[in-house]
Amino acid sequence: MGMLMPEISAATVSEWLKDYSEVISEHANELTDLDRQIGDADHGSNMARGMTAVAALDPNSFASAAELLKKAGMTLVSTVGGASGPLYGTFFLRLSTVIKTDGEPTAQLLADALDAGLAGIVARGKAEVGDKTLVDALSPAVDAVKKVAADGGSAAEALAKAAEAANEGRDATIEMVARRGRASYLGERSRGHQDPGATSMAMLVGSAARCLSGAES
Ligand code: ADP
Ligand code: MG
After folding, report:
1. Any idea which GO molecular function terms this record carries (predicted)?
2. Is 10-213 assigned to CATH 1.25.40.340?
């Protein structure tokens, strides 16, 4: 089975960012409700504000995917007040440093880009896997992409596996005790609640799989 992977360009990255913005707006109340359980009830509004600003960026005014990714990252850092803004912002900024040229991506390029994005989030937030944060959705997704790349699979296949792994990672946060961010103030009482950031991160990976994978050939 083959998949047609669209070329990475400002136009295709913009489709991804706009799709994610729509998903976030549709689920803003759900994300805020999750944050009400173990945080301060603003994750949905934080992400909706940031992604609405990102979705308003005109792809025609960017010469490459990298330029748009960089601006998206800077926009999130400057428009989102909460912890999530600088973390998601760093993620997109790091992607822009790896996806330097437009064109058809390999699974290995996606693995390198997502790995850099994860490393940026970890450098900034110091969360490890198991700390009940968005890292728990992103890290297994990165591992899944790396595995597909090592097995010689396609970029589209890598993104499909990444989306599954991110959803599983999100679900696994329910049983975790938070050790980073506001939820860590609750200690044991954070157990039994799904992490809001892991939920929005799984949505980002799912959106990438939908928008960047193309149609089956
Ligand atoms: P705030 O906590 O400032 O209100 P948000 O509510 O927008 O910000 O985002 C909360 C989410 O951010 C958490 O659910 C968690 O996934 C993520 N998060 C918080 N701190 C960290 C950290 N140090 N490293 C990684 N992710 C974090
Ligand atoms: Mg919050």
Report:
1. glycerone kinase activity
2. yes
Single pTM value for the model: 0.96
- Packing angle of the helix pair 135-150, 196-212 (nearest 10 deg): 30
Residue bearing the CA closest to ligand 1, atom 7:
43
pLDDT digits (tens, 9 = 90+) for 50-98: 999 999 999 999 999 999 999 999 999 999 989 999 999 999 999 999 9
Question: If you measure from the C-alpha of residue 22 to the centroid of ligand 1, how many angstroms do you get, rounded to a whole number?
Answer: 21
* Domain positions in the chain: 10-213
Predicted local distance difference test score (pLDDT) of residue 147? 98
Residue 103, phi then psi, degrees to nearest 5: 140, 180
Residue where the block lists tokens 């760093």: 90
What pLDDT, in 10s, does the model give residues 183-196?
A: 999 999 999 999 99
Residue nearest to atom 3 of ligand 1 (CA): 82
Residue 8, beta-bridge partner list: 103
Which amino acid, one-letter code, is at 151? D
pLDDT tens string 94-110: 999 999 999 999 999 99
pLDDT at 8 > cutoff 90: yes
- Atom nearest to 125 CA in ligand 1: 23
Show the tokens assigned to 26.
């549709």
Q: Over the Cα atoms of the chain, what is R_g?
A: 16
